[in-house]
Design a protein that fits this description.
homodimer; 348 residues; alpha+beta; Arc Repressor Mutant, subunit A; Beta-Lactamase; five-stranded antiparallel sheet; three-stranded antiparallel sheet; 10 strands; DNA-binding
DNA sequence: TTTAGCACTCAAGGAAAGAGAGTGCTAAAC
DNA sequence: GTTTAGCACTCTCTTTCCTTGAGTGCTAAA
């Protein structure tokens, strides 16, 4: 059977109507929406065809039609009109991204909340480095006999620091030696390699310095490993409860638990600026009845973030896609503008 | 009318039964649970009295009895047997607090999740300084001509640092002057005062240094203000959906939105190690039908944290109280052990 | 003061009936 | 061949009514 233009148009109407009302769409309503150029009986014939072809489903014999995942897919690929954001909306997005440039994590979690509250679905957000994070530079600042501050600059120019308590007193004069050693042997290499090298220099360094050295490396390894593992933040899960498809507490609970406990299995496509996954296209079982829209944004050169929203398959794809890519652009701009000064290597 | 011992015992049975089943408790069940020493008819008489006295309520004429807030209050104050944690439970709590001592924020949010998942109710957690945070020491590390790292140690010995981009080139030789200035004029004072002093020194400092100085102070003010404002983390809101009193999506949504949006109005008592607020004893409207149990824990000398759980008035107060104080103790121990080295002032 | 007995109340659950939305099919019209 | 009007049919949803059963309140006796 052929998918005529009229069939497509009807499909479009069904999808858009159903997205709004969450109620099966009847032939009469479709006829009305199409301007009365054809009668409801004609529509009925077409609808029957569309059901046969798998684009629509019928909850029961005497109900209207509901789009199938295949129907949504066609809609998203061909029928949907790409929406443009209104100036007001763009304005609002940018406003909600007027974040002080603090720590990356914090910015991200705030952005996640902003996305969720603007799109009205639960959102998740993450920043992932394309490669393992390494240290670029170390510095030790003596505080007193018992403690010193370790400062580490990472590959992405973020700086982390902490107070270290010294187990053994260390002569302040020896600090520079240690810093030189740190910067020459422990920068630009993986955490495994750092541990390795620590072992290697063990004998060349006086014991009380070695203790401090290994504390420093332990700290560095911790921070680096945490930084290179993607942290996923979710926000706005409670938005689900407003949707008719999640009025059932069990369903809502299942999805919300998934969102808060098993974030790792949320879709993380590694290509393209935006991806839409409809119902069964999702791998995770918990998402089989939901759709996910994910967009990516850039953080400097070698990092990349993802923002996604999760909603019912009956999702307003056009609006969500438009807004989400608005946010992605906003974040790209945000990071491009303020962070990551020119990347000259500064190892001495 | 007098509150005889038997009445109290009956009240206790009603509360404990209702806590478990969430169903109104009938006279027959109570009689059975009391060992058959009295008949259900006698219980009925007593129940009628307890209703008159306001300790119990009757959903409708022919239903069993349900504790009123006043009844819960009496139960919590007098009747409840303080539970001790089993060794296994203590073990489990300590295990879940085996957190690497990273940034305070991160520890706290992880602890919040642990609390929630161990107690099975939504939890909130916060760390609040008793006083405004101040800077204790500054350091500037030149990176290259365009940037330097600012390191600041705060009053609680936490260290924060960030890369600053310089608008104007700064002579490296001049840095020490600036550091001395920072440490002599901008440590130990409020952020307002810092801004004030910045204005005062404006004329005594060469312009290109002043720019860097003001960037540094701006960063410091940001960090300090953020550190002294209580951040409240909530976790496990989805636990609500398992409870029969929140099967209704609207109710659940209302409370969950409150928990995620208006955290500031969660109960934050400033005295005593533990506080239990039952139903209408809560100030916030959104919590009028729920109970809150809050415990406090210590972080070093001048900071103090709060963990609370939110649940239905029908909450297993004995267990929750025991577990929560187990967590509070665990956190106190955690912070006492690792953080905050001896507090000698190290300003030069 | 306690208890047995009994009539009474009320929510919850199920069956039956009616309403309404929408379909599928047929036969006529274009 | 396609479109349309007409009509019987199907199925859900809502309402109503009835039944059931847990639990009470009251009375009178122990």
């Amino acid at each position: 059977m052929e998918l005529t233009d009229r069939k497509k148009q009807i499909l479009k109407v069904v999808v858009e109507d159903y997205i709004q009302t969450a109620e099966p769409v009847g032939s009469k309503a479709i006829a009305a929406e199409m301007g009365g150029s054809v009668s409801s009986a004609t529509i009925r014939n077409e609808l029957a065809d569309l059901v046969d072809m798998g684009y629509l489903e019928q909850p029961h014999t005497s109900a209207g039609r509901v789009p199938s995942p295949k129907g949504y897919r066609l809609y998203v690929n061909e029928l949907m009109e790409r929406q443009k954001l209104s100036i007001a909306e763009t304005e609002k997005i940018n406003q909600s991204l007027q974040l002080k440039m603090e720590e990356l994590d914090r910015v991200i979690s705030q952005a996640g909340r902003a996305v969720s509250s603007f799109i009205n679905y639960p959102a998740y957000i993450t920043a992932t480095g394309k490669q393992k994070m390494t240290a670029r530079r170390f510095e030790l600042l003596p505080v007193d006999e018992h403690s010193c501050i370790v400062v580490m600059m990472m590959g992405d120019n973020r700086v982390k620091s902490q107070l270290l308590r010294l187990q053994l007193k260390v002569d302040i004069e020896q600090m520079p030696t240690l810093v030189t050693l740190l910067n020459s042997h422990f920068t630009g290499v993986s955490t495994d390699e750092m541990n390795q090298r620590l072992m290697n220099v063990a004998e060349q360094v006086p014991p009380q310095l070695f203790l401090l050295l290994s504390q420093t490396i332990a700290y560095a390894v911790d921070v680096l490993e945490e930084a290179s593992q993607r942290e996923i933040v979710t926000a706005g899960a409670n938005q689900l409860l407003k949707l008719p498809e999640f009025r059932d507490a069990d369903k809502a609970h299942e999805l919300m638990s998934f969102l808060s406990d098993s974030k790792e299995s949320l879709p993380m496509p590694d290509d393209g600026p935006m991806k839409i996954l409809i119902g069964p296209e999702n791998v995770s079982d918990a998402l089989k009845d939901t759709s996910v829209v994910v967009a990516s944004y850039d953080i400097g050169d070698d990092m990349r973030g993802l923002i996604g929203v999760v909603g019912p398959t009956r999702m307003d794809y056009a609006t969500v896609a438009a807004r989400l890519s608005g946010f992605a652009d906003g974040l790209t701009r945000l990071f491009g503008k303020q962070e990551l000064p020119p990347k000259e290597d500064t190892k001495e």
